[in-house]
Amino acid sequence: WRVLAIYMILAAHLSEQQVLKQACPSCGTSQLCNCSSMGLDFIPPGLTAKITVLNLAHNRIKHIRSQDLQQAVNLRTLLLQSNKISSIDEDSFQSLAKLELLDLSNNSLAHVSPVWFGHLFSLQHLHLQGNSYRDLGESSPFLSLRNLSSLYLGNPQFSVIRQRNFEGIELLHQLWIDGSNLSQYEQGSLKSIKKINHMIINLKNSNIFSEFFRDILHSVTWLEVTEIKLPVEKKSLVQNSTRPFRIRKLTFKESFFTDQTLSRAIVLLKEVTSLKELEAVDCVLEGQGRWNMKEIARSGPSFVETVTIIKVVIQNFHLFFDLSGMESQIKNLKRLTIASSNVFMVPCNIAKHFSSLLYLDFHDNLLANKRLAETICEGSWPSLQTLNLSLNSLKFLEEIAKITSRLPKLNNLDISQNSFGEIPDACEWPETLKYLNLSSTQIPKVTTCIPETLEVLDVSENNLKEFRLQLPFLKELYLTKNQLKALPGATPIPNLVALSVRRNKLSSFSKEEFEGAQVGAVRLSLMECRRSLVVSLICVLVFLAILLLVVLGYKYHMVWYVRMTWAWLQAKRKPKRAPPKDVCYDAFVSYSENDSDWVENIMVRELEQACPPFRLCLHKRDFVPGKWIVDNIIDSIEKSRKTLFVLSEHFVQSEWCKYELDFSHFRLFDENNDTAILILLEPIQSKAIPKRFCKLRKIMNTKTYLEWPAGEEQQQVFWENLKGALKS
């Protein structure tokens, strides 16, 4: 009885292993088990301790049972996103003490149970977003998750956050909450988390913003709020809060502001003394700049040092005020970016008050020469070191140089992707300029307009045919995508340490060329002297040769014969049959793409869902990606007990079906061999079969084949006959 019991256990285990391998072929020997997008309705049995990564995403799983993952004790990553999971047994994850990542996002979970996560002591990343739960319950589901680093929560139905919901979590690298329909937030709910490096929340209900913001003042370093319509907040944002605060960066994305809400926000955010960086991306401002300047001035200076504004739409931009009265708020600012926002000028009286600004980025705007002269007036931007004016409407390089010379401390200037065209012989630049980017500015040459003080120069993507400049301090030179035929001389640039000359017209250079050579000593070959003529002649000859080969190949099927000869040589080197241990399919199915609907939706379903199921090899599903298709065909036929041909008019016209049939000539269509099974999906005229498939014609004349009937009763007999043939 003991022997019998052991035998039964082993048999059951082997049966589970077979089911697992049929459901997920990649689970055979690897630690990574990829079962995504396999149409599974359940977690396949047979998972072992060998597996560390299990991917079951994008299936149709509805329920996770206690025994499903019981043996996968070494699992580190479990991906279950995008299924239909609506229920999980309480002890389903009990054996997964080593699990580090669990993704249950985009399912149908109507509640979150703390029992699920009770034994996940190593869990670091948990994804629960995109389900249907409305809250997290009365207590915290995360009490046991002491090592949690990132948490993703919420969905369009998520409406309540309660005080005890986050107990047990002390530190998070990232917290992401979809609170697009959040209507109730109990104050103090997030205070239990001591530190959050980056928090992202989608918050459309502006009424709970202030309560939520007060709770995260001491824990969140970077707060990112999306889709909010900022309220006119009257109460202080730091009410009853003690310093010091932790929050340093506040980002608004896809949010909506008015003059009134923005004016009030500027005042209230000054109370957050730790806040150093403000960012607005893809936001909308409905207003004309009519801000309460008196209230803003009375509230004192701002502590913010960096402001970033990207793709902000001002609906009445042409009516916008010049923001006079904001002078006291900008004097401590060190970095300012306003990009892709249709900026065309900054008034001179405002620009003069940016006394501490070191970095200014105005890329992708509407700045033109005349407005730039007002933006960079005498006495403006006195501390500026880096200026980015790329992708604007600037012209006349000499004028731009003169304007920027008003900046006494400028050492880094980017004016790329403007249309300068011509370049003068002399320009007046800031004496401190070290870096200049003139890439993609349509300059046809370089002149002494380029300042000798430079250490880095980028003139990539222009029409330069040569580079002959004396730049004694230059260390880096970028000449990519020009028309250079020779390297720049080494003597005029003695301190050069980095040179980029990719995608030019350089043909060759040697060590001697770097050291220099006398012109009289150079002897050029015919190729070097008449390179264009020689190259053109070679190209014409090569083209004619290729054209001739294409015509001959098309007429005499040369490509087809070369491919098949190679396949035949490979087949000859292999044994007639694969060893039994390598045979893993009941049948390889050869069919035309035009017949895929019948094969994949009718035949595969009938055979693979039979009892016992047949394991079929389909090129769409089972071929190895990146492997030559002929090798895939050869290997698949050798690893299959039978080869099943679905014959139709489309089949005999298919190029790859011809290859499969030809390979079968070498290995299967032997008169004493019954491994080939023919299914006639529709009547085929004999003349439709290519002449080179004479053995196929012979077999169709001498061997029985299965014909697909029109009636349902005859179809049942057809399936029984086909299953019998596969078992034989």
UniProtKB/TrEMBL annotation:
The keyword Transmembrane helix applies. The chain crosses the membrane at residues 533-554. One of its GO terms (biological process) is toll-like receptor signaling pathway. It is found in: Membrane. Coiled coil: none annotated. One of its GO terms (molecular function) is transmembrane signaling receptor activity. InterPro entries: Leu-rich_rpt, Leu-rich_rpt_typical-subtyp, LRR_dom_sf, TIR_dom, Toll-like_receptor, Toll_tir_struct_dom_sf. It is a single-pass type I membrane protein. Residues 1-17 form the signal peptide. One of its GO terms (cellular component) is plasma membrane. SUPFAM superfamilies: L domain-like (SSF52058), Toll/Interleukin receptor TIR domain (SSF52200). Residues 583-726 form the TIR domain. Disulfide bonds join 27-33, 348-377, 427-449. Pfam families: LRR_8, TIR. It comes from the Eukaryota. Keywords: Disulfide bond, Glycoprotein, Immunity, Inflammatory response, Innate immunity, Leucine-rich repeat, Membrane, Receptor, Repeat, Signal, Transmembrane, Transmembrane helix. Belongs to the Toll-like receptor family. This is TLR21 protein. It comes from Rhipidura dahli.
